[in-house]
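Project standup — Tuesday

K.O.: blocked on the structure for the chain from last sprint. Re-posting the sequence here as requested.
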Amino acid sequence: MEGVQRFVDVGTLMIKIVTVEREYGSGGGEIAKLLATQQGWKLWDQLLTEEIARLANCPKAVVEVREERTDPLYYRLFKSFLRGSYEGSLNAHKLNVVDSESILKITERVVQHAAKTGNSVIVGRGAQHFLRNRPDTLRVFLYAPRENKVRRLLARGKSETEAQQLVDTVDRERADFIQKYFRVEWPDRAVYHSMINTAMGDEAVVHMILDLMKTVDAKATA
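H.V.: unblocked you, prediction finished:
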């Protein structure tokens, strides 16, 4: 945020973690990065994926196609066969099936570690639900009009057809993921402190989040 001074004293804040859930194409990753940079906080986005991959002992690309998704039917059947077959039962301790459930368990560990460390901005991955009972966590949801999301994806180099398809499919996968593992509709409005339309611009959204942090802190210390 060029030319913008940091206007929140992080040393005096009670809020130490911000979770950023987002619609695909709404700019959640970019806004989380701006927020983390301005505050001097740690950004858990790609870093979160990398840490999950390290703990799961698998390539980062494997985690990227599994996180925030449910396993496809063919994969669930394959996993069931492996675990139920005679050969699979003999070698159960050797099976390293990297599925959505195993990734979710590792994700929770990493998210809780990030929260314990504090001064963190955590993007997606169900973090808003893992940390919903922490008073030092601000939970925001970012959305945008469809045309804005498509325009942002086009700017990233996606084709019109690909952008339209991604806007529909990625959010549907995220909704299925939240429904299956957290038993709530996506987005679960009650879990968020604020839901913000990013059409106003990334910097404006960051300002809103920082103002909200100050407001929540002021109320907590009143």
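K.O.: great, moving the ticket to review. The domain at 13-221 is CATH 3.40.50.300 (Rossmann fold). The chain has one domain: 13-221.
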